[in-house]
Write the structure tokens for this entry.
Amino acid sequence: MNARHEFDVIVVGGGIAGVSIACELSRDRAVCLLEQEAALAFHTTGRSAALFLETYGNAPIRALTSASREFLTDPPEFWDSALLSPRSLLQFAVRGRGDALESLFHQVHELAPSAQLVSPTEAHALFPLLRAEHIDAALFDPEAMEVDVHALHQGYVRGLRARGGFVVTSGGVVALERLGEVWQVTSSDGSIRRAPVVVNAAGAWADSVADLAGAARVGLQPLRRTIFMLGLPEGADLARLPTLSDIDESFYLKPEGNQMLCSPADETPTEPCDARPDDLEIARALDAIGEATTLTTRHVRSSWAGLRSFVADRTPVVGFDATVEGFFWCAGQGGYGIQTCAALARVGAALVRGEPIPQDVLARGLAVDDLSPARR
């Protein structure tokens, strides 16, 4: 596979952003995907909590999420299993924050019409571990889902390969040089590949890749997110429980088999790295969980962490760089990469080809300027 050196597009990064846009572009382009690690999806994608929430994120994120639902509900030929399974969402507002939750409801209702405001008593009925006296109100989304991240990612990899795309692991980029109308891309093993277009889908490392290309950074900030697992009391029934989240993001809980996946929803600035969990954040989350629910165990069975990389406005950066020819950004997906990837890959592939954003995404209110690298 490494014998080939000439391509139409080289995609840097093997997480969900990279494999999805690479698969879309491979419909009519010769594509090579380069991943710095020995395995794809080693960092953020492989550590995602995997939720599909149309009420989550700003307006561009909600538009991209909504436009991804059809694909995730009925995936095409390269996916051999269902990608979504039911897992409703209950977001609550603590005492004194009911107005903020009502404002959120009005923001999300157009794209998520099934979402509904519920009383503290109704919220307790939906999530019996929640202390009704702790909250003002809650927002219930019965159509929220959880995503099989592994199946989603692997389907894109299968599609890329089936269309003739090349996947190279342990292929970290160490040099990018523009020679006439093509990029010369040198990997850490000394191998060289060339293409007119380089797609920068390197996640937390995207600004570092831009440095190699001579492009201005977009101001990506990797933020560490800690996740841990708690056991539950004997007889607890998680099968029908929704994901539970504080709208101010002091923590969230998601049932996982006979355990509860928990997070302090921390966003600690860090350098690009192999993230590790923060014990202090876990302790803080346990306190918040014990205050809001009757889940008072402090025995953590396992923990891990990942990176969520945002620019200042928390909207992805997708499009050609304004000053460096043939350098295309696909970065800054933050915590929304899994739920938006299907639509964002189609948008990105269309922009690489010089085509308009797909009409179904435009109809949901997304504009090119929302994603443009030039907005920085």
In short: The mean pLDDT is 93. Residues 9-50+149-220+314-375 form a domain with the FAD/NAD(P)-binding domain fold (CATH 3.50.50.60). Residues 173 and 187 are 4 Å apart (CA to CA).
